[in-house]
Amino acid sequence: MSENVQSRSRALAKLVATIVVAGALLAGLLFPWVGGTGLVARNSASLLDALPVELTDKTPAGNSQVLAADGSLITYLYENNRTPVAPDQISEIMKRALVDIEDSRFYEHNGLDVQGTMRALVKNVAAGSVQEGGSTLTQQLVKQTLLQTATTPEDRQAATEQNVGRKLREARLAMALEETFSKDEILTRYLNIVYFGQGAYGIQAAAQKYFSVNAIDLTLPQAAMLAGLVQSPANDDPITNPENAQIRRNQVLQRMADLGHITPQELTDISAQPVAVTPGANPQNGCIDATTGGFFCAYVLSYLTGTLGLSENEIKNGGWTIQTTLRPDMQAAGEQAVLNTLAMGDELVGTYTAVEPGTGHVLAMANNRRYGCDAESQECESVNLNVVPSRGSGSTFKVFTAAAALEQGYGKGYTISTSDPYTSRVYRGPCQGRNNGGMYCVPNAGSGYPGTLDMERALYMSSNTYFLAMEDALGSVEGPVRMAERMGMKFDNPVTQTPADQIIEENRGSFTFGTDAVSPLDLASAYSTLAASGTRCDPTPVVQVLDRGGQPVVGDDGQPVVKGDSCTAEAIPAGVANTLNQMLRKDVEPGYSGQTASRAYIPGHEIAGKTGTINNNASVAFVGYTPEYSASVLVWNSVEDRSVGGFGGGKGATIWHDAMEPVLSGRPTASFPPEDPAVAAGTRGSGRPAPAPDNGRGDDRDDERDEPSAPSDGQTPDDTGTTEQPATPVDPPVQEGTTEEDPFGEGFPFDD
């Protein structure tokens, strides 16, 4: 006997033995449920008790979807591309083709088909290999469901291991399913879960992938081809192996003809034709495919997993609907506004981030980068620049010092006379190379500042010397730092930020000049606390997460994972917030000489805001807000610590204006509450009366005048929290109304 014949005989003997032993074991173990000539469920309760929850769900989960605030689609999230459909959304010819080729006695058996199993046994023995399976569609449904819902390697192995135990379990569960669901429900569930190749799970995804049609519209040739794919999706793929696909399709057609379900003429006409496909694209998947707001989408995912504690597996396989707060109109306006000033992929990075006061809803996240694209290009970025602290925001932090001062009884008219530069009496640090006993000092960013200013005018003119003197009056930086935290600022990034407690312990006088890197989202959120009259709301991008049945997804406590807005009323006193709002309007709205953010103004609306610039003009910022919206803009150089050109009142205010103008123009205006008279007046005296305010139209400068600060570009601070590198004075600052890059020379920590 030849070696090939011997090998074939051994394989045949093994196959027969395996089938016979398996059949005997199955018959014996199933005996309590066997009666008469067929298999019937004598003890339905016992069978149903065995059903795992995965098999009692009526439909498999489809793709999770992420929706914008208006209900439009942002993207899908999935591991397996699947869109479940109802029985009446699948063509009858598709159902018939699948049953004929996979389980022609489907409508006659009750989950196990003894006749079909014996027929397969005879055919396989005759061929010497497995040519036909003995599993029913119901058994296949059990196997595929347990496999595709497995969450551990052990569960996956249990669903596929080749032993009698698995077959026995499948048989029992199949019988239980037949007792639970109708034949049409079982067939629909199978068509919704089975894999058709090319990443398409379920009949709707397959119809879209291969023919760009819906499952209800599948024709006989298309249905026959898809039914044939179930056995071997890779081998019979009509896109990559059209010849194999044609052979397999024709086998399905022949089986349908043998059973009398199509005519001989249909068999002849279709079999002669090659397979014809019209491939469709897979549905978008993940934030890289987002139709809008890729960085916002990434923030949503980090929020779901980090804040809400959901797993990626749950999110991608749950068929959930994730309703977000994104405003597509604001997102589009923000993206265009950034690109109006900075080209996509420019070495200057620009971010625009908007939130809603009073709710914390994140409305837009735009920048001049593409999220997560694969190309090695400066246009591509996987770090969420709208969330991660990258650079300092300069004198936007003066607002925290002003708020702390107002709360401690220093009214908006509190007047201080300072020299320029001004040397602190409290805080230690660099002082332009001067021998001032190691005390910190700062200059203004131009020579047009009065030596005496009140808090309101010093704020909208962004006087550096006044605010260092104001910190002196407070005696410690703790008040401004804690105020920033109460308003929503976080100092918890271990790479780019200094913890709040350390800033306080080292009593860093540079805090008021925004030297540390900040999150654009935190900045917009903190200013929204002012817009909401002191109510702080944690930023949130999600308003609800619904399961595939439309019910809220619940956590371990049985409560919905999304519990609503997280707000703290009176996080800061309403009087402080309302008074500060009226003060900051003067930085934007017309009529105030020396204001720094006139370019942000949109006629007909009350707008408050503050500009900022760090040393060497390497980063500029503007935070503007109305009673309805708060948005931050940060622009910085991604290449090195080089000037971005100008100050926060230039690129920063311009981007804010261009982003908000389409949103605000032509719409009813809202008004800020009036200032609190007691807070505005204060309880503390001042050194001398403030000069009369200049109510004429301010000069239309594109810069702002702020101050030197501690390092914001990764330099290591010393134990005072300020730069170790001394600064050397150079040419005097330019006159008011001109742009000043760095009045004290490169290397001095300069803030706007």
Describe the structure.
Helix 4 runs parallel beside helix 11 and helix 6 packs across helix 9. The protein is elongated and about 100 Å long. Strands 9-8-21-20-19 form a five-stranded antiparallel β-sheet, sandwiched between helices. It is of the alpha+beta class. The chain is built from 25 helices and 21 strands. The protein has two domains: 269 residues, Penicillin binding protein transpeptidase fold (Orthogonal Bundle); 301 residues, DD-peptidase/beta-lactamase superfamily (Beta-lactamase, 3-Layer(aba) Sandwich), CATH 3.40.710. A hairpin with a 4-residue loop joins strand 20 and strand 21. InterPro entries: Beta-lactam/transpept-like (IPR012338), Glyco_trans_51 (IPR001264), Glycosyltr_51/Transpeptidase (IPR050396), Lysozyme-like_dom_sf (IPR023346), PBP_transglycosylase (IPR036950), PCN-bd_Tpept (IPR001460). GO terms for molecular function: penicillin binding; peptidoglycan glycosyltransferase activity; serine-type D-Ala-D-Ala carboxypeptidase activity. This is Membrane carboxypeptidase (Penicillin-binding protein). It comes from Blastococcus haudaquaticus.
